[in-house]
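Dear Dr. H.,

I hope your travels went smoothly. While you were away I took the liberty of generating a structure for the chain from your last submission, since the lab meeting agenda had it listed for discussion. I wanted you to have the full record in hand beforehand rather than looking at slides cold. The sequence, exactly as received, is reproduced here:
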Amino acid sequence: MKAYIDRIERIAEKYAELTEARIDAALKNHEDIDSKVMYEINDGIRMLNHIATTWLKMDQLNKDGNPTGQ
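The corresponding predicted structure, in token form, is as follows:
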């Protein structure tokens, strides 16, 4: 279970870095924040939300002493 939670955390960190880099690139290049740019940023945030929800569920299972979820 610990290895799975660690993997989820690594994935979350990577998505956060990608999303942050996309925001920074848009601001640095003085890009017009059009629908494509907003979609890319929103998609990154949405994926972070899914990952965080998964992490919370796994953490709760682990705390309940039921690492298999059964």
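Two observations you may find useful: The first helix runs from residue 2 to 28. The helical segments are 2-28, 35-63.

With kind regards,
E. W.
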